[in-house]
Amino acid sequence: MKATPTCIPCYLRQVLSASREVTDDAETQRHVLNEVSKILPQLALDATPAYNSTIVLQRAQELLGCPDPFSSMKQHYNQLALEMYAGLKALVDNSAHRLSTAVKVAAAGNVIDLGILDRDQVDVTVVLEELVSRGLTVDECEILERKLAHSDQVLYLIDNAGETVFDRVLIEELGAGGVQTIVAVKGQPILNDATMEDALIAGLDGAADLISNGSAMIGTQLGTCSPEFLNCFDEADLVISKGQANFETLNETSAPVFFILRAKCPEVGRELGVAVGDVVAIFNNRAGCQAP
């Protein structure tokens, strides 16, 4: 997916969010925004929005002297999600359609996006109740279930800290079905993306094999990932991709990718053919993914 001029205000909102996490000083926040604005003309529209976001956020981190501005926020949502874990599992255990419900649980976790939302704007419980009662806007879970029956190894690309606990529910359901799952985390902190530390806090090591993708980029920029990750990506029977940034960076690949995300901006909504706020569980149409 390519960037558009519409993406530029979002880059600056992410920078402001990062700045507010580090300092309450308005002058410092303005200075960071002013300095980051100087590199905006250099950002290419043929790059992905996630790539450009990484460039501006890395510059903001340099200016702030902080390599992980969202550290405390990530801890907050890790703990909040862990408190919800038993209830999330119960939803699946009490469901007549376990896999579909587990996918909805994972999708509900995608509302946690600190680069766009403030902490007080997030109510995961409400989103989860809506998804379970109303369903997904695009729901290809039946195709997923049939493809899993022919899959030995799944690569699961997690997204945000806190959201990882919701992913754990789906990953455990995959394991119960006999599917080996490898979970990929970020190589270094960027935005609120989950690192190895966040995955361990979420208990994912008890449900899957964990690897780093070796990259500090938002999304999954394949050209920046480690050989180990790329080997797993190429060998996986199926890739499950969480979140908008992973969609932005992988929607043009021919790999068999199953995207689970909420469309959080008009550009992503346009790519998916849905409205902002809609939640989808959909296969990559470029991969020719059809049910066996």
Give a quick set of tags describing it.
single chain; 292 residues; alpha/beta; Helicase, Ruva Protein, domain 3; Rossmann fold; seven-stranded mixed sheet
Give a description of the structure:
- With 292 residues, the protein is of the alpha/beta class.
- The chain has two domains: 7-64, Helicase, Ruva Protein, domain 3, CATH 1.10.8; 71-287, Uncharacterised protein PF01937, DUF89, domain 3 (Rossmann fold, 3-Layer(aba) Sandwich), CATH 3.40.50.10880.
- Helices cover 48% and strands 11% of the residues.
- The chain contains twelve helices and seven strands.
- The chain has a seven-stranded mixed β-sheet, with helices on both faces.
- Helix 8 (163-176) links the parallel strand 2 (153-157) and strand 3.
- Helix 4 (71-93) packs parallel to helix 8, helix 5 packs antiparallel against helix 6 and helix 5 (98-109) packs antiparallel against helix 8 (163-176).
- It is globular and about 55 Å long.
CATH-defined architecture of the largest domain: 3-Layer(aba) Sandwich
Let me know the CATH homologous superfamily of the largest domain.
Answer: Uncharacterised protein PF01937, DUF89, domain 3
Helical residues, percent: 40-55%
Q: Rg from C-alpha positions?
A: 18 Å
Order of helices and strands: HHHHHHEHEHEHEHEHEHE
Share of residues in strands: 5-15%
Overall morphology: globular
